[in-house]
Task: inverse folding
């Protein structure tokens, strides 16, 4: 894998994660939470997506240095 393809793949993942975060946040605002389980899963998913995005950004900084 070369540098250009790595950058492209990382940017695609970041864009996808941002879209997922936006969709999940919009869905949670529009729909009332029906159970504590749904709330816990939504919060866990948001945390996983956020940490994945942060990790990819750190990888990009390391690679570009």
Result:
């Amino acid at each position: 894998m070369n540098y250009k393809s790595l950058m492209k793949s990382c940017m695609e993942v970041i864009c996808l994660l941002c879209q997922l975060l936006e969709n999940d946040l919009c869905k949670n605002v529009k729909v009332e939470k029906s159970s504590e389980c749904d709330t816990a899963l939504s919060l866990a998913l948001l945390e996983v997506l956020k940490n994945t995005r942060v990790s990819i950004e750190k990888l990009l900084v390391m690679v570009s240095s």
